Each structure stands twice: as structure tokens, then as C-alpha cells.
Here is the input.
Amino acid sequence: MARNDGKENKTAKTEQKTSKPMSTSFNIKKIRKDFPNLTTTVRGRPLVYLDNAATTFKPNSVIETLETYYKNECSNVHRGVHFLSEQATKDFEAARQKVRDFINAKKTEEIIFTKGTTNSINLVAQSYGRTFLKAGDEIIISHMEHHSNIVPWQMLCEEKGCVLKVIPINDQGELMMPEFEKFLNPKTKFVALVYISNSLGTINPVKKMIAAAHRLKVPVLIDGAQAVNHLKVDVQELDCDFLAFSGHKLFGPTGVGVLYGKAKYLNAMPPMEGGGDMIASVTFEKTTYNILPYKFEAGTPSIAGVIGLGAAIDYVQAVGLENIFTYEQELLAYGTKLLSKISDLQLIGTAREKAAILAFILPDIHPHDLGTLVDREGVAIRTGHHCTMPVMQRFNVPATARASLAFYNTKEEIDVLAAAILKAKDVFA
Here is the structure.
């Protein structure tokens, strides 16, 4: 089981060294006014929303952007010569440029719009994996992966006869790096890793792991779903070959995501889906495919979602990812200290480098019961296996309760969570 030795109270330091002093422009009261959901009441109490790892609330600027698209320029992209189509296309492609700048990709054509992280990972597994991997090749993932970064590789292994290798984790929820290094060998042909664990909060040393894999010329995919909203992700600095993330975890719309891929890989990969916009020409004898990025964007995309994602990136950039990381680390340290004082409560995931996620168990209360009881106090947390069943098996628990924090949360809300947990304990006492 995870230790509780006080190390979790320390402020984590990421590879990007983002823990600089917070800007005076970071005004929590002003920020909270930007998110209308935060004014909601639940069962007569002010909502305390601590389920941000599942999805994040949307600022007014994103909501207004979606409304503007549907009211003023609702049209398809890339195919029309009329004004509305041209305007929608302009805004759609402007969002692609914003994503490029946000993650510092070399080229806009390396930015593929998808339905989300899961879709992005499946695209790589199906397109790159089916094309370039063969029987006996080894794929490395970790024990803390989300199901969306496990199942696609298992499916590929079953189809192609590849071998899946799993990096173990220690009792603190950290990857066992010596084991990873032992796994790397001439048979290794692909590595897929989560940057920040959605169920433990662990920030993995992905830059070092990418460098180790590249010494053997092995491409690496990074699941950045829980990373891009907490810290700066620079794909050129990391030198990752693929990066996947979702809009809805980045304060943007649901149903839209991003796959970044180095152009040399994307150009060599066949499209996963066929249809409109991914073609250059079609006859009954042969189809030729479009150039990047459109080769991987078959059919009408989530136009409003993409434009809304651009607005979300604008908002996050204005707040500042360094400010966000620093403030969330303060919340994490405060929450860790406060919850550690609750008798019998055990934190699951106490990595030295960690994002603002507090996962825990109480021995006499099932997490689902706990979630129901704290909901009566207006507190929204997530309970269950969090799409990481292997993590639950590793810690020998059926599920955990998870409070995941965002930069619009406050210490006062963590106080409400702690009080709700104590009240739940009284019920079961």
C-alpha cells in the first residue's frame, strides 16, 4: 500500500521547472467568476467541484465562442466558397495554429484533430502499429496507464503477435525506472507512456524515458490528457514522437482532441478512416490521399469543438501555465496535509513529483458510499477504478475516492471536502 511519510507535502518540481513565483495577475476571485458552473448549488449547498481529472468546467469565453459559431457562422469547413464557410475555415485553422503554438510543434500539419485522447491513441496503434510492427516486436507501456493506453496495444498484440511489456510501479506510485531500462532492447519497437497519472497524480520523467528509447531509435507516444492543463508541454523539448490530449480536460469542449505527430511518421502512416476531406482524388480504381493534416481527418470534424478548443487555449495562456502549476501545487500541499490528519484515511499515490490529485481510501467505507455521502454536502469527487484497473490491483483496493483539483479551486473548498469526509465517517461509526 502507499506510504504516508510526509513527502507528499512537498511541492513537486517538473522537468520543465515550472514552479516559479506566482504572477500577481493570478486572481482567484476573478478567475472563479469566469466559470459559471462554480455558482451552481447542489442539494441546497454551494457546489464544490473536485472532479477535474474527469472533465473540467468551461470559462465564459469558451461558451461564448461556441455560441458565436452556431449563431453567426455555422457552416462546414474546407469545402465551401461562400462567406460562412470561409469564416468557419479561417477560425478552424486558426485553432490549429493555436494548438501548434501551445505545444510548440514545428509545423501546423503535425496537428491532427481527433475526437479525444482515446481516439488519438487508437489512431497511432491502428495506423502506425499495423503498418510497422510485426510478430515478436515488443511494445512498452506502464502499470499506471489509463485503459485507453492499454487496450489498443493489447488489440494490436493479439492481431500482430507483438509482446506487451509493462513497467512496474512502487508503493509510492512511481515508475520503477531500472525495470524500464531493462526492458529496452533491440526487440523494442514502440513505447507508450502517460505523462501524469489520472488515478495517482504521478508526474513521470517522460523526457528521460523518451531519450532512453531514442537511443535505440524507438518512437514514443505520450498520453498528455492530464498534463496539458497543469504544466507546459513542449513537444520539441520533450522530443516525443506523438502526443495525445483531449479538449474537455483543457477547459474546452467535449468531443474534440489532438494528436501531435512528427511529420516523418505521419507521412509514412496510412489513414485510419476513409471519407470526405482525407482524399485528393477518388475513382473506382484508386484513391489518392490528401496531404497532412487532412489525411487523418475524414468527414466533418467537430468544427465548433475545435474553435472552442482554440478559445480554451487562449484562456489558459492568459492565466499562465506556470501560475496554474504553482497555485495547484499549493492546493495539493494543503489538501495532502489536511487529509493526512483524518484518522484511518490512506492516500494512494504519494510520488515525489505529483500533480494536484488526491486519491484515498477509508478502510470501513467503500469509495462509492463515500462519494454518495460527500455529494450530500455539495462535494463532487470521483469514485471507482478511474479506468485504471491495474492500478487498483497493484494497491490491492477495489476502488479509490479521488479529489482532482484545478486552478479555480480553493483551500476553502478542500476544507469543505475534509469536513464532508469526517461527517461520512460519523455516519458509518
